[in-house]
């Protein structure tokens, strides 16, 4: 089995199914931040200045370079505990996380699973689409460094949020295509809650409620959409979803 690195939830590293390092093993907050930053983009090296910014932002202490060297040294020693070999590579003022070729990283795993899910859905392979989309959604629901705030952290959270929304859309679509309308509605509701300004999400949910025979609930979904668009964007629903609403009122769709 490959080395597995978890950046969502709690930081952890497994090898051959055994937990090698948990979050408490990392050298304090600074060690966790540096490791998460490097692992989240493990295919590139970064300048030490970037790592200084990760740790201290615009206000590094006078001894920042010395402290950073100490953090990297402790991380390097920690990574040697991974049997398959991992290290911090550094030269010319740049630092990179060197991982075994078969390393699985949860952020990449979620993105890859989503790609597989959407591809399987296009092929009509419902079982594969559901399986891969579920993996993507499970990973993407987990928090990324929940006690920290920084632009690079927010970018990773947005990446996970996008994966989660697309994964839930795929799960809803699979449910609709296979006749599991209860699951399809549940996943569609979650999409609306996560992406409350996307009209297509409301329209999809309205159509699902119509398929279950609940036109009244479809109308309530439209009312929620209209209210949110007005409150948040000062906008009105698009002609397409407004026409669907009118058709429901007229009894032209069911």
Structure description:
- By secondary structure, the chain is α+β, with helices and mostly antiparallel strands.
- The chain folds into three domains: 3-102, Orthogonal Bundle (Arc Repressor Mutant, subunit A), CATH 1.10.10.10; 106-180; 196-254, no CATH class.
- 61% of the residues lie in helices and 11% in strands.
- The protein is built from ten helices and seven strands.
- A four-stranded mixed β-sheet has the order 3-2-1-7. It has a three-stranded antiparallel β-sheet with strand order 4-6-5.
- A hairpin with a 2-residue loop joins strand 5 (87-91) and strand 6 (94-98).
- Helix 4 (106-123) runs antiparallel to helix 5 (126-140) and helix 5 packs antiparallel against helix 6 (151-178).
- The protein starts with a strand and ends in a 5-residue tail after the last helix.
